[in-house]
Amino acid sequence: MAINLSLQGGHRFYINFQGEEGYLPPEEGLHAVKILRKKVGELIKLIDGKGTEYLGQIVYLSWKKRTPFVRVKIIEILRRENIPPISLKVLIPFLKGDKTEFLVEKATELGMTNLLLYQSKHTILRKRAFKKERFHEKALSALKQSGRLYLPEITFVENLSNFLESLSEEKSLKLLAHPQGTMDLLSLLDWLKAPPSQIILLSGPEGDLSPDELSLAKTKGFQTISLSPYVLRAETACMSLMCLISSLIFSIYKFS
């Protein structure tokens, strides 16, 4: 069957149902029919956040109390993405304003597999900071925009020290962004000659890690790396570390 998706642009819709037919989540359905004016019979792209992109068709549409019920049918698989061979975990500090949401978006775009949003001794949290649904929405939006097919797992770490204590000594690369970092790029490239099973990235919050947290991270195997001779904002350091690793992983192993 010859299919022309030229009118679909980059729009993809997230599905979380089992089987060949099901309903779009309410927010996805609203975007499809109210913003993009999709109608019954139209073809759309669907993603499941688990590595597969589908060609789908809208087969039913109704409204109830201003909420659209959009039923779609999967027609065929358009693309599959392999499971990431390296687990890329990033510890993202809770920051002021919407900076944490920004980092969740960018981490998703850069292919991080696990987003660990953490609270440290120097973190000041707002009451709404732990709203997981909001972070899920940001990650999903970035997933659809970027073309990636795996939605990262989002976890909340309420105590950074306890999390660090729980880390095993298994072979993995642990990197900590720090102004006085001792690892240079050549050493990092040497580490990456053989792909580790996982890479764990850590950068500090506004006000940096406490001396105890920094010492514990080093004890648990984190190697410090300097990203700039200048002082970086917390969000810049986190972003730079993710960009560095994402770029190297793609360049060395030819997977993203």
Automatic annotation (TrEMBL):
SUPFAM superfamilies linked: alpha/beta knot (SSF75217), PUA domain-like (SSF88697)
Domain Ribosomal RNA small subunit methyltransferase E PUA-like: 25-60
One cellular component term from this protein's GO annotations in UniProt: cytoplasm
Pfam families according to UniProt: Methyltrans_RNA, PUA_4
Keywords per UniProt: Cytoplasm, Methyltransferase, rRNA processing, S-adenosyl-L-methionine, Transferase
EC number per UniProt: 2.1.1.193
Cell location: Cytoplasm
Catalysis: reaction(s): uridine(1498) in 16S rRNA + S-adenosyl-L-methionine = N(3)-methyluridine(1498) in 16S rRNA + S-adenosyl-L-homocysteine + H(+)
Ligase is among the record's keywords: no
GO MF annotation terms: rRNA (uridine-N3-)-methyltransferase activity
Gene Ontology process terms (BP): rRNA base methylation
Domain Ribosomal RNA small subunit methyltransferase E methyltransferase: 85-245
Highest taxon in the source lineage: Bacteria
Its job: Specifically methylates the N3 position of the uracil ring of uridine 1498 (m3U1498) in 16S rRNA. Acts on the fully assembled 30S ribosomal subunit.
Family assignment from sequence similarity: Belongs to the RNA methyltransferase RsmE family.
PANTHER family xrefs: 16S RRNA (URACIL(1498)-N(3))-METHYLTRANSFERASE, RIBOSOMAL RNA SMALL SUBUNIT METHYLTRANSFERASE E
Protein name per its UniProtKB record: Ribosomal RNA small subunit methyltransferase E
Taxonomic lineage: Bacteria, Pseudomonadati, Thermodesulfobacteriota, Thermodesulfobacteria, Thermodesulfobacteriales
